[in-house]
Write a structure and sequence with these properties.
Elements lengths: L1 H6 L17 H8 L4 E6 L2 E5 L6 H8 L10 E4 L2 E4 L3 H7 L5
Parallel strand pairs: 1-4
Antiparallel strand pairs: 1-2, 3-4
Length: 98
């Protein structure tokens, strides 16, 4: 992820280490429930969720890791969350090199 950001001269406004600051399902839902979209990458598969249309259960199942915390990396761009890493997805969704 860092290499991706570096090659595009992008700097996050804030960064949290998921290993040190775990987020349980309630905290994750509080953070994401008002999002416009939640885009989840798992390997080559990409799913898009809309909190007003998809169930809380299906969204949390997709964004929570095996440890019971929010999967990493998670990036927020405006009202859209990107969970997991997929190079093609990030190339399409993130701004080009500055």
């Amino acid at each position: 992820m860092q290499e991706f950001l570096d090659t595009r001269n992008l700097q996050p406004q804030s960064r949290t280490d998921a290993r040190k600051e775990r987020m349980d399902a309630t905290a994750v839902w509080d953070l994401m429930s008002n999002a416009e979209r939640i885009v989840v990458a798992k390997g080559r598969r990409v799913e898009t969720f809309v909190p007003t249309e998809d169930t809380q259960e299906s969204i949390l199942k997709a964004v929570m890791g095996r440890t019971g915390s929010l999967r990493a990396p998670t990036v927020r761009s405006g009202e859209i969350f990107f969970v997991g890493f997929n190079n093609v997805l990030y190339d399409q969704m993130m701004p080009p090199t500055l």
